[in-house]
Design brief:
2 copies of one chain form a homodimer. With about 260 residues, chain A is α/β, with parallel strands linked by helices. Chain A has 11 helices and 10 strands. Helix content of chain A is about 45%, strand content about 15%. A 6-stranded parallel beta sheet of chain A has the order 4-3-1-2-9-10, with helices on both faces. Chain A has a 4-stranded parallel beta sheet with strand order 6-5-7-8, sandwiched between helices. In chain A, helix 11 links the parallel strand 9 and strand 10.
């Protein structure tokens, strides 16, 4: 079992931020990544549709014989995790619980959450944070332009700064001390967001927290295999060209071979 | 035959700009609209994937017994029109030829074309314009942020103005006298674009030109039926909530009943 790969999926390139943190923390593990680029994005789609896509993506990875499923997409983690855990007989880690756990360390208990429409509408971050810190005040804001801004390579462009000012203004007014980056694309906008919020606001990067959660789970369950060879395999559901190009900005590295597959 | 409906499809809400112009020019015709909202957008996806989606969307409308197929999506028109015409035994109108015909009236023969990555990469607008005006100079620019800006309701927001300045600068420098709005979302940004380009640049709205092309075709082929009753029917492939909300801004009106269907 421990010799198997870790399966990671996202709607597209965003989950590469999670992939990168896992690869960095557990360099010897073999990783298989699936980006559902033929149907990206998930963040503007309904619960039913996202659940269907997530089950199909997970099934593909399970068929590859992975030992762990990482849902590297906030929207899919928000709406599909219970169904994935019910359907498949292997551990499933999403990005929301690890992010919420870290956010619950807020000192003033005023926490901002930003994400796609799907993630914010699901209310999963407030639920997960309140389970750990019942009197926390949560201020949520959907930021639909951040994904296209990151994919355009404009994460630090004036346009991104102006959009961020508009989206974050209510959170600034609310005097949050912690901001959850509730979408795997958002770590690319980290500098832009920090400039607007100032250094006193702690930014929670779900990608980092999720990688730590994977490490903890492996230690608990004896699943780690630091000597696997560190192979990285990428699958996408559309032609790989755009994924390879945009993915380089996410990994700050070339991806190597990316194979197109059909799922669903 | 002439008693049948007109079938119109797009990847999502964008094609409603085309729908609106057809409904306004031919108010008595029955219209059936399909938005492939479970797989939107098409503009960032590959030729193969967009062709597959367009064939599936068209098949759904053909099964409804329509007399004409309008491809109200620039990306699908750019890459899938020949396959659609080959597959189905009914007239098919896309949005590119009508827009190109109008653009070819440029006086200084310096024409800008803006659209999604898929539309610009296809090179279909330059090809169609050059067929009519061989010595035209075409300046193309993909504007990936315009679709999310329009869907966010930010078409006239400062963020849209700043993004438009960035995208249009090379076209301003090139001294174009005509700009093709090569994406069905872009008419919503018309005021913003006109402010940057000035009143001397003529904006070609594919939606208006396509509606005129439908009217011409009906006159030529005796397909018009001005007394059909003007029924409007909407289908989408994801849950209708978001389509209804965003669609109101496109139609400046409520849509009435929207039904979810599965295609493909």
């Amino acid at each position: 079992m421990r010799h198997r790969s870790i399966g990671i999926f996202d709607s597209g390139v965003g989950g590469l931020t999670v992939f990168k943190e896992i690869a960095s923390l557990l360099p010897g593990e073999n990783l298989i990544y699936l980006g559902d680029t033929a149907r990206v994005p998930y963040g503007t789609k309904s619960v039913e549709t996202v659940c269907r896509y997530a089950l199909e993506a997970a099934e593909f990875l399970v068929d590859q014989g992975v030992k762990l499923l990482v849902v590297a997409c906030n929207t899919a983690s928000a709406v599909a995790l219970p169904q994935l855990r019910e359907r498949f007989q292997l551990p499933v880690i999403g990005v929301i619980e690890p992010g919420a756990k870290r956010a619950a360390k807020s000192l003033n208990r005023r926490i901002g959450v930003i994400g796609t429409e799907g993630t914010i509408n699901s209310n999963r971050y407030p639920e997960a944070i309140h389970a750990l810190l019942p009197d926390a005040k949560i201020f949520s804001a959907p930021c639909p332009l951040f994904v296209p801004l990151a994919e355009e390579g404009w994460a630090e462009h004036e346009v991104a700064k102006l959009a961020a000012k508009e989206y974050l203004q209510p959170l600034l007014t609310a005097q949050i001390d912690t901001l959850v980056l509730g979408c795997t694309h958002y770590p690319l906008l980290r500098n832009t967001l920090q400039t607007i919020l100032g250094d006193t606001v702690d930014m929670v990067d779900s990608a980092e927290e999720t990688a730590k959660a994977v490490q903890n789970l492996f230690q608990q369950q004896g699943l780690a295999n630091p000597e696997c060879g560190g192979q990285r395999t990428f699958f996408v559901t559309d032609v790989p060209t755009r994924f390879e190009r945009v993915g380089r900005a996410f990994l700050r590295n070339n991806l190597g071979r990316v194979e197109q597959v059909q799922i669903g």
